[in-house]
Amino acid sequence: MAIPPLPAAAPAPPCPTGPASGGARFEARLAAHTRPPEPPRPAAQLAQALRSLEGSQARLDRVLQAARSGRTFTAGELLALQADAYRFTQTFDVASKLVEHGVQSVKQAVNTQT
Q1: What would the pLDDT profile of 24-78 be if each residue is shown by its tens digit?
Q2: Which of 12, 44, 59, 61 has the lowest tally of Cβ within 10 angstroms?
Q3: Burial 17-35 (b: 16+ CB within 10 A, else e)
Q4: Residue 96's domain spans which residues?
């Protein structure tokens, strides 16, 4: 069985790219989306990491205060508390190592310049 050929399609009309059609705006928006995002500054990243650590510490402090006041926790809540405490200690450990490495780098740079 032979498949009949499709009828020829009419050519598409040309697309205007002038200001009246919005083509220039589209090109500007497209260019804005294709630019790589500006990398975050190291100081901003450090500030965000410290805020995150402070938030985690405050959350753990609230849970411990609730436990001291007599609140009982379910097994799921205790597992979540354990996971939060583990995540906090790991983050704090990495942050302290980064600070230590930074201090050592500054010391080395100061000693090299003298």
Answers
A1: 777 777 777 766 767 767 777 778 878 888 888 898 899 989 999 999 989 999 9
A2: 12
A3: eeeeeeeeeeeeeeeeeee
A4: 42-113
How many residues in total does the chain contain? 114
Structural domain includes residue 17: no
What digits encode the pLDDT tens for the residues 10-22? 666 565 555 555 5
Which H/E stretch holds residue 77? helix 75-113
Number of compact structural domains in the chain? 1
Residue 78, in any domain of the structure: yes
Residues 114 and 108: their CA atoms lie apart, in Å, by 10
